[in-house]
Amino acid sequence: MNRSDYLNDLRKKVRQIRNDVQKDFYFLESSDLRNRPAEGKWNIIEVFDHVNIYQNHYAKSIAQGLEKAPASSDDSVKLSWMGKRFIKMMEPQNGEIKRKMKTFKKTDPILRAKEGFAIDEKVVFQNFIKDIEFLEELILEAYDKDISKIKVPTFIPIIKINIADAFGFNLAHTERHMLQARRILK
Domains, the chain, ranges and CATH? Predict the structure, then answer.
């Protein structure tokens, strides 16, 4: 696979996600953001709070990995078999979430609220925009690096994937939850 093409596709996704969040969610009323579709289900702001936890984790991991990644003039990238599998499991298919995934307790906003974590809508969206823009900066930095060589941690500490995988997985996770937020809004 061509690294430049892969990273160009990721940048398009990042920009689309950022624009969609700003257009569709950023200026919603608090009541719309906090409306639960059903008892025990996440509301829109909780969806984005959850995404922020992942964005923050992967942005830090990718940034640290890019510091170690060697420069490369070879414009190829290779996703690992595990990375491909993780991305495919997470990625929406034809505008639908293909399979339900279990959420880690430490990333579940309802459980976090019970532990005293408060969610402020504007802070959640400011952090989301900041993190998605930082992700785009990391993608730009990756154009001349070997992003297939260096592995970064996932949320399961013993499992590591390469930087190319981490970019793809993180964006697939974000796209998945964008669909979830849109369903809640309807």
Answer: 3-185 (1.20.120.450)
